[in-house]
Write a structure and sequence with these properties.
By secondary structure, the chain is mostly helical. Helices cover 59% and strands 8% of the residues. Helix 3 (26-33) crosses helix 4.
Length: 74
């Protein structure tokens, strides 16, 4: 049985905030990490079901950040 408080929490993607802090556009990020602009847009909007650790590592390397800077659990 899942408690009610657990069902209310969710993963929040703040990739758009980090891109703004780094003054980088989605197109540049997509080129540097090797995924399509459409996939970056899906990541930014939080409409993905998962992300590969390899992709997350590339994003963090390019944006000079930690995974917790772009993904939170609220």
């Amino acid at each position: 049985m899942v408690s009610e408080s657990m069902t209310e929490k969710q993963i929040i993607v703040t990739l758009d905030v980090m891109l703004a802090k780094r003054k980088m556009r989605s197109k540049e990020l997509s080129q540097r990490i090797g995924i399509s602009v459409q996939n970056v847009s899906l990541l930014k909007s939080g409409k993905v079901k998962g992300i590969r650790f390899q992709t997350l590592a590339k994003i963090c390397e390019v944006l000079d950040c930690q995974p917790g800077d772009i993904i939170t659990f609220e």
